[in-house]
Amino acid sequence: MALQAYKVEQVLVFATRGTEAKMLAAPLIRPMEEWREDVAGWVALRSERAPEFDELYDPQRTEPYVHAAS
């Protein structure tokens, strides 16, 4: 399955599922220690499918990754 674009707050991630995108982006938003203390915040954190960014996908990449703007 090809990687698809997801937005997690302001972080653009390419992943196969939204939960995968959330796991990659979360430590960039807040330290994991804070997420452990704020379970409600973790649950509320959403990854949104962002098909308008699919064109930025690097076909050389096969593993989920956080997109770095160039």
Key traits:
70 residues; alpha+beta; single chain; 4-stranded antiparallel beta sheet; 4 strands; elongated; 3 helices; 34% helix
What does this protein look like?
This protein is α+β, with helices and mostly antiparallel strands and 70 residues long. It has one domain. Helices cover 34% and strands 21% of the residues. The radius of gyration is 12 Å and the shape is elongated.
Low-pLDDT sequence parts? none
Shape designation: elongated
What pattern of helices and strands is seen along the backbone?
EEHHHEE
Range of helix content = 25-40%
| Major sheet attributes | 4 strands, antiparallel
Instruction: Report strand %.
Output: 15-25%
How many domains make up the 3D coordinates?
A: 1
Quickly describe the structure.
Helix content is 34%, strand content 21%. It is α+β, with helices and mostly antiparallel strands and 70 residues long.
